[in-house]
Structure formats: C-alpha cells, structure tokens
Amino acid sequence: MQFEQESRARQAIEQLKYRYWRACDGKDPEGFRACFVAEGGLLDFGPLGRTDPDTMVGIFRQIALATASDGGPRILDMHHGLMPSIAVEDPADGGAPRRATGTWTLQFRQVDRENGTETLSTGEYSDVYVVESGRWVMAECLFSPGWSITRSLDSATVTFPEVHTVRGDETAAATAGVDS
C-alpha cells in the first residue's frame, strides 16, 4: 500500500471519529447514525449495552434528548478522544484500503442537571472501520470503561446554549466530510 493512500485513510478515519463525538455532544441522532455501517454493525458501550447502531440510536435519543424540568437539556456531554492508534489493512488486490482497526482513549464529562451531578470518566474504544458507499464508517465500536468519579454539583451554576440538532437533508451535508 502506498504511504499516501494509508495517510488519507487514517485522516478520514480520524475525521469520522471526530464527527461521531460531535454528534454525541451535539445531540444529533442522525449524525450519530451516519457514522456507522448501513446494516449490521456492533456497538458495545458498557452500561448502555451491546447492540446494533439502529437500536443504539433509540437509546441515544432517550438519553441525549431528555429534557430537564426547566425545559432545557437534562444531560450535557463532552467527549474528547485522544491517542488514536489506527492500523490500515493492506488490500490483497493492491487497491485502495477498505478496512482498518483503531483504538482511542476517551476523556468523558457528563453533567446531569436533574440529579445535580457531574461525572468524569475514561475508557478505551476499540473500533473496526470499513469503506461503504465510498466513505469510511464504523462496523464495530466497542467501549471498555476505565475509572470514573461522580460528584455533586452542590451550588454550582450550569449554563448552556440552546441546543440545535441537524435534521433532514442538512444531516448529509453536516456529516459527509471527506472520507477518501
């Protein structure tokens, strides 16, 4: 495999993972779903369960789009992925790469406005990436939780902007990126 092909594949995969985390933090179920294979796929997010992308979108909607008693978002998330290690497989036919694996370290912060708590945690992602319809997507996304701390917000003031999610035809433009 040529260095340039491998480099482009790695960059596209990194952009895919960043879009995934932005969709999570942006409360964008359609953008989240667009990061995975069209059919099949395996996700395991520890306490949230082991399932397929479509089922996880339903879980994502319940959590990310939940509202607090004041009408604002109940949950505020912040995902930061670090230290990617991506292995692009050399296709037997000498063509462009079509499969890769990767690991990432996650720093995660979540504010639960209803319970008045903040959780800070870490973990490791182990992913399988494939090219589908000309772009990189995740076929497997497995998360292994690391350490975690949950503390009371006590008298803290939590502010947040009005949340806007990307809908309809805008989703494709917002999540398309350059994957090849």
Provide tags for this entry.
alpha+beta, 6-stranded mixed β-sheet, disordered C terminus, 4 helices, 6 strands, 180 residues
Structure in words:
The chain is of the alpha+beta class. Helix content is 27%, strand content 37%. It is built from 4 helices and 6 strands; from the N terminus they run ααββαββββα. It has helices at residues 3-25, 29-33, 53-64, 169-176, and strands spanning 42-44, 50-51, 75-88, 99-112, 117-132, 135-152. It has a 6-stranded mixed sheet. It is elongated. The protein starts with a helix and ends with a helix. 22% of the residues are buried.
Based on CA atoms alone, the radius of gyration comes out at 17 Å
**How would a crystallographer describe the biggest sheet?**
6 strands, mixed
Output the number of helix runs. Answer: 4
Instruction: Report the uncertain regions.
Output: 168-180
Physical arrangement of strands within the biggest beta sheet: 2-1-6-5-4-3
Oligomeric description of these chains: single chain
Strand content: 35-45%
User: What structural class should be given to the helix and strand makeup?
Assistant: alpha+beta
Instruction: Count the E strands.
Output: 6
List the helices and strands in order.
HHEEHEEEEH
- Name the overall outline: elongated
Helix-residue proportion? 25-40%
Distance between the termini: 15 Å
- Average residue pLDDT: 90
